Fold these 2 entries.
Entry 1:
Amino acid sequence: MDQPQSGHGTEAANRDKTPRTERGRRTLRKLLDAAAVEFGERGFHDASISGITRRAGTALGSFYTYFDSKEEIFQALVRYMSEQLRDHVTPIVQEAPDEIAAERAGLLSFLGFVREHKEIYRIIDEAEFVDYASYRRHYETTVARMRQRLEAGAARGEIRADAGEVHAWAIAGMNVFLGMRYGLWDETADICDVARIANDLLANGLKRRD
Amino acid sequence: MDQPQSGHGTEAANRDKTPRTERGRRTLRKLLDAAAVEFGERGFHDASISGITRRAGTALGSFYTYFDSKEEIFQALVRYMSEQLRDHVTPIVQEAPDEIAAERAGLLSFLGFVREHKEIYRIIDEAEFVDYASYRRHYETTVARMRQRLEAGAARGEIRADAGEVHAWAIAGMNVFLGMRYGLWDETADICDVARIANDLLANGLKRRD
């Protein structure tokens, strides 16, 4: 670090805590994965920094190398989960032959992700109360990607030409609710079937008009 | 009251606190309306019973006539808001000439309700952390009504015959996200336009196949 740090408040939040070594990046990931479990199981108020470092198997000092507070790691965690989800879904979506198939693959991989990371709902949803800006940013960036995909599909003539922002928010909401109902609440639902039914609604709803 | 009461815990929660007079029902509604403002502005943890009674203009004793705790009025409030929303939307939906028009009118009236009751998102969403059973019940009852409507429309031949549970969850999610984006976050969006675009997606997505 080149500059003196106060260790408190926004000034501290601005110091560059990005790890510079592979070992540092591994520790940071361990802390974030542990934070996902700690916040997911206990919720923001009951979660503790010592609970996170214990789960991560790191010293308390490592925590403070990267974060100044529970609030700060929570904020980083929302972004981390949002990026994990994006990195899980994006390559699958990009392999699809067209936009409708991409939305189906996207929903199916999202439902699979929810089954594997059930804590995602609790963490993203708690951000509404702990850090509203992170909550809103998660949805705005997710929907912006979806909208780009729709508009690219429309430009290629695969779906209706007017597909845009309202459609993207509608599809995002559809996916989040189907994930809650069939990914989070219901262990036994056939998620392929859910994705097929929902995608059939979209395939017709977004069909090109000539 | 006929039975001795402990005033604590589940036993107390079981005593019948339904008001028997019109005046009692008015007081109860005043308390619930005040609770919506108090919880909506301050969130569950910072909200207080005295804050609720102050806003309601009632004595503290009136609160304890109907509720034993902050948790109990919060739980009642989630149900109250869920019912208010239902009572706002249902008559509008019932006047629609067919199922697609009903969904459009339903979404439009929901978007209008959100504009008038912005606190609904914060309260329902906070139930996920304060009282999960209420949170889940709100969505399950809302979606069950939607599903009934879809199945009745399918039976009348107005929409595809296989419209059912997955479609109902998809539409509910769509509406909740459109309400957040265009009702809650954006004061200036033309909600008629939003409802028209979303309904056009549904009209085609749910079209009858012969």
Entry 2:
Amino acid sequence: MSEYHFPRRDAQFVLNHVVDFSRICNSLKQDELDSGLIDAILDEAARFAHQVLAPLNQVGDQQGATITQSGVQETPGFKDAYQQFTEGGWSSLAGEPEFGGQGLPRTLSTVVMEIWQSANMSFSLCSLLTQGAIEAVTVHASDELKSIFLQKMVSGEWTATMNLTEPDAGSDLAAIQTKAMSEADHYRISGQKIFITWGDHQMTDNIVHLVLARLPDAPEGVRGISLFIVPKFIVNTDGSPGRRNDAKAVSIEHKLGIHGSPTCTMSYGEHEGAIGYLVGEPHTGLACMFTMMNDARQGVGLQGVAISERAYQHALSYAKERIQGVMRDGSRVAIVHHPDVRRMLMLMKSGTEAMRALAYVAASESDKLTAASERNKPLHQARLDLYTPVVKGWMTELAQELTSLGVQIQGGMGYIEETGAAQFFRDARILPIYEGTTGIQGLDLVGRKILMNKGESVNALLNEIADEFKTLRVSEELASVLKTAIDTEQQVRDGVDWLLNHKDEASAVGVNLMMSLGYLCGAWLMLRSAAKALALSVDESEDHEFLTAKQVSARFYGEHFLPRVAMHLQTMKTGSAAIMALDVEQF
Amino acid sequence: MSEYHFPRRDAQFVLNHVVDFSRICNSLKQDELDSGLIDAILDEAARFAHQVLAPLNQVGDQQGATITQSGVQETPGFKDAYQQFTEGGWSSLAGEPEFGGQGLPRTLSTVVMEIWQSANMSFSLCSLLTQGAIEAVTVHASDELKSIFLQKMVSGEWTATMNLTEPDAGSDLAAIQTKAMSEADHYRISGQKIFITWGDHQMTDNIVHLVLARLPDAPEGVRGISLFIVPKFIVNTDGSPGRRNDAKAVSIEHKLGIHGSPTCTMSYGEHEGAIGYLVGEPHTGLACMFTMMNDARQGVGLQGVAISERAYQHALSYAKERIQGVMRDGSRVAIVHHPDVRRMLMLMKSGTEAMRALAYVAASESDKLTAASERNKPLHQARLDLYTPVVKGWMTELAQELTSLGVQIQGGMGYIEETGAAQFFRDARILPIYEGTTGIQGLDLVGRKILMNKGESVNALLNEIADEFKTLRVSEELASVLKTAIDTEQQVRDGVDWLLNHKDEASAVGVNLMMSLGYLCGAWLMLRSAAKALALSVDESEDHEFLTAKQVSARFYGEHFLPRVAMHLQTMKTGSAAIMALDVEQF
């Protein structure tokens, strides 16, 4: 069984020196959130993750959820862990105080969410999706619905699900067929939803399903979708769960990974129709869905960081212990001393650090949006919107490579299930698929986030990166990396210009552009980290081992990841015609 | 359950137009091997793979090998399939006629081997390793040992295993501790071996274990290893299997994939010592092992092609059937029409084709070696030696990406085990690990294959590539790809020069150089294919759909894979210092 330790030094370095979290707290008027309180929260989360959640990770893999006559039975131990989780107040960390939440800044709750996802991704997926649902209900639901559901969702007393996909409607929500019929003060929902994460379990006494469906008078396509709250148990007037709704999980999937997270086929309205409540106006489900989805996409990107970190810790521990081969002096050594193993560990380490920095920076943009004046809000909203497909797409793709390296470092032992490396690799494979595939992220980036505003928001980011590069003071070893990064930023800018002039090819090139932007953002923040580390190292009280390592990590990133940007851009510019050149019959 | 169809057109195109197989047959004086006979062999292999082996692939995954008191029990159906396999003469295809083999050229047996590995990798791994053992026994064993064992190995009546790895000796064979003590006309072997593929089963009435062990007077390190034949059952004087030897499988591994292939921990000499027979001279086990290993490495590289082909067929079939999204005219379409899905399919298609071409070209080098005059043999041996780490390393790494795309194309359905995409992804994950990890291939390339001969053999290959590029006539659409390829060849040449001037960094940069050489070789053969396809298209009787597709595939390869060469080389040249810059404690 593998342990998990919160990478405190790196996370706090990013919080303090990359994100400038104290300034965010000031702007949010959360001055009580001093370093002592932050430390206490992170310490306690790290302890809970280490002692309770992480040990259940392999249990979830080996004793995944099952389905019985009375519904889905989660992994043994999960219910107790969930109870401790909510009792510890962890569910309500980011929730609004009005509904019982602790109102912590998004940046900080993101650090804590990384901890949960590293410790036990299957378990923590339940909270991740509940967060998205909370966001949607907070923004779009009526006060009445909020008063019934929101407090219990925030406290974690009830969990929530997102019901989008149907057998004929995966990435294409226009094809949704689930029906909603008006009846008295509610609706009757009927239809089948698939791939519903944590669609059923016995950990809480109710589950709040958010379900996309069509009203009878709905226009065709995505403009005819409405969002409904469909509770597993109808809520009594006193707020307690009452009789069973006509909604249930009918089967669960046998998946490559995340066995601890039940993926359900949900059946609504097999009998009289499931009772549901409209969220927001009719036919505005798509907007509600995007609120949920954007939140979840940031969360899934963060899962990419989290599982890479866990896989890295696992591989590192093996590499330090596994004796293999001899040095020139004849002494036998651990494989961590072999250059190619070291190369792989450094890929894992620096790749994970770069992702973490971007995940926290993207989260901090949420806080900046909250704190911003009305005049500045659109700028922060645009930046956040721009980050979302990069965080989701780039990070989850990079997590594939890093978790695979985690297996590779352990050689034959990595391929044996008992050692645990394979679980991270299998679990990670869902990340570029759910909450919008990598292809969808690419489309979102080039379409909604670049072409729709004529490149304005991406160029604003590129300007900021270019300006910062000009001011960074880095060590001599990093000078050439910084120079390469400056050139690379210009290449990405040219790539964006190319896109603006080749709109017809947008759908073929999205993924390559998204990957190049991701790698550039990673370099930007790793270089910022290196510059801060250099500046801090004049102070004798600082942790110099760490500050040196941070600079090495940035250099390695620049040398091993940054060259990928030019590769993706070259492919983007030359490679779209050949993509569609074959007739389907020629395959 | 997914079907497998032999990609006849592409395989035959490579045979006829990339490898020039008829010339190879001539040089081997195998003129009876005309196109009619070749067709008949491939037809029959394709039929057997389609009807018998492929349907057992998912069975092997779901009902993997088990271990009981009486040994390892293979997947239901495998024994019958194996019997049909040997009765059909498939085991003996490449064997020497002197020992009952059919003496087919290596190039052709490689095409057939691709078919087996695509249809059922776990099942066919048994034959692949038996081939390596046959090679070692043929080259190194005494006539007496050959007369006892070789014919039955060639016929497939007995299978064979390779016993290298021990708990403390994985990639590092110097650490082998298994002992061999001389006794009368044989030896007594004792020790434990792990990760022994097909170490036990009930498909045949004997198993020939090839075991590395140390004699009492052996020098330390790899120069003190000897190779022994240790049969599961001692062979009677009449050649039949007699009493049980003191050798058995004590456990099997629970693995990420290839469940149908039992991976055994073997115990030799728990009682009186297992009876073994020395192969070759004492202390020359390393050379024998390399004969086996080089053969197996080419085979594993071919598995990379094979499983990518299978994953591609599976994903393509899904992409053609799965309706999702609408065209501008409002009609609903299969996902194969979406540009990003098409991009992924083209990556799978062109990547697999490039690997196939290199696998067959490398195999043809074996045939050229056989046919060569004594004077020319060293050249062909050097080329074959050079190809081996590229075939093993590059192809198995590329197979990771392509089988992962196979999952990605199928989205959520790809993550569900029943659909089968995940099995290819899981099975493929062993390929960069067994028979020498990717790191080991990188070391082999830069050390034994480049530095040891001062770059002579790699420069001979690069010269050949450069010369051929000058003569190729390609279509207008491919002109810029050819130009890029010419530049890229020069970059690889510069990379080799860089290596020759930076010998101390060799161990850190092997993988990056190996990958860049692999991608270049792929471009070389895809461009050769495109030029041949263009030349052939003047002939009206040719399959023009295919010839056009071949050129599109080459173009796509050049645009989407070739830019990776520069990326790997840039990383190689700049990135070795940062690899080792951290102290172990700083991780």
